[in-house]
Amino acid sequence: MAKKISxxxxxxxxxxxxxxxAQFMVVLDIAIVNVxxxxxxxxxxxxPNDLQWVVTAYTLTFGGFLLFGGRAADLYGRRWxxxxxxxxxxxxxxxxxxxxxxxxxIVTRAIQGLAAAFMSPVALSLVLTEFKEGKDRNRxxxxxxxxxxxxxxxxxxxxxxxxxxxxxxxxxxxxxxxxTCRLGCxxxxxxxxx
Length: 194
Description:
This protein has helices spanning about 10-45, 50-75, 80-95, 100-130, 135-150, 155-170, 180-190. By secondary structure, it is mostly helical. The chain has a single domain (about 10-40, about 50-190), classed as MFS general substrate transporter like domains (Growth Hormone, Chain: A), CATH 1.20.1250. The two termini are about 20 Å apart.
């Protein structure tokens, strides 16, 4: 029998909200940086050919370590790995926000991708263990897919929403990675409560 991940497991929809928030951060961080590439380029004096590494460092480490993240969850425990990966993601987001050179930003983006590679399969496997097969699990999958689809900016509605989100991030944040740091801290604290 799978262990419950928090005292709120009686209310599995609270658990789903935390897991969906984690997936939201993973997908948002892939896409939101594209909005900020011109600002990043001018602020950190990126060479035009090196700017692609801001996105590529994240996605390459994310895709490269997904299977390893899933296996690590099986070996070391889902709840523990979820909290560690969310915390690591939040710290990497903070480091991205403080980046003062192109190299530092690329390295911290790679660390974010690594943390996301552990966080994403753990969140998906926790949905499988927390929700029984049938109506509830299908509803949970649909909710997760809606968040990932909205966040990735596919479709006309997603692009418009994403442009508004990008504008809000430009107005309220100095750097695009401050928002994931706040979301990561919130998710880590909420998932660690017993």
